[in-house]
Amino acid sequence: MKRLFPILAVLTALMLGYAVYQALVVAPTERTMGDVQRIFYYHVPSAWTAFLLFFVNLVASVAYLVKRNPKVDALAMVSAEVGVVFCTVVLVTGPIWARPVWGIWWTWDVRLTSTLVLWLIYVSYLLLRRFSDSAQAPALAAALAIFGALDIPLVYFSIWFFRTQHPQPVIGGGGSIDPRMWRVLLINWMAFLCFALLMCWSRYRLETMRREVEEAQALESLLGDDRGPSAEIRNPKVALNRSGQ
Amino acid sequence: MKNFEYLLAAWIAVWAVFFFYQINLGRRFAKLRDEVERLKQQIQLLS
After folding, report:
1. What is the ipTM of this complex?
2. Cα separation of A160 and A173, whole Å?
3. A39 touches chain B (CB under 8 A)
4. Using one digit for the tens of pLDDT, what is the confidence trace for A25-46?
5. If we measure between CA atoms, which residue out of A92, A89, A118, A115 comes closest to residue A105?
6. Which domains does chain A have, with CATH numbers?
7. B34 at interface of A, judged by CB pairs closer than 8 A
8. Interface of A with B in 126-185 (CB under 8 A)
């Protein structure tokens, strides 16, 4: 598996380079919006990747609540964190695209607001994981993830059910897209998926390592309580026991 | 090139987000490696 990581890294770098070339050079220029429409090739694949990662987080969270497997819990955490990174890309590129096209950076319509709420939910999830030392934190986070995932269909279908500033879907929503644009979009999505997989892989390694270090630290503090020179200072009972011996 | 500056800004923003996340991951890895080294030294001292 360790050999596979550099191969995937090189493959991802090549795919990302090819995707950039396709998005900026090969894809046809949109007639009304001009070159700014090329943001589409970053904005949409990022959103799809974030949705997929949040879905993985949902599945892993449910699995954790059922089986209490720490590896599944680590997967849930990793997918949420990388999902937040891609969701951040969506929230950053959206306003940059909106400004020249709509004349505004932001509007509180259903699609934009629900996406912001989705991002806030998963940021809360990560904060809970980061700052809670409670043994119940993984279960609480899993429950939060399940509620958070309810927002995903709302984000996705909001432009179908509500009149929004955000355009109607050109894919699967009755609209049309130039086949060359569709091809470039898929290439970019594939490249982003590989990049997301790579990020999840390194983050999972980091998480496994962090948990092992935490276990070692706990063991160290236990040993320190029993044998360490500062044990008496930290725990007076140890000093009393030693003086008793 | 119509509205090219916005496209450039978005492109930079996308890669800035990814870049900062990678930097953050690298820092966390480095911090953990330091901690592993410290723990190894502690084990050697204890044994």
Report:
1. 0.92
2. 8
3. yes
4. 999 998 888 899 999 999 999 9
5. A92
6. 4-167+176-199 (1.20.120)
7. no
8. none
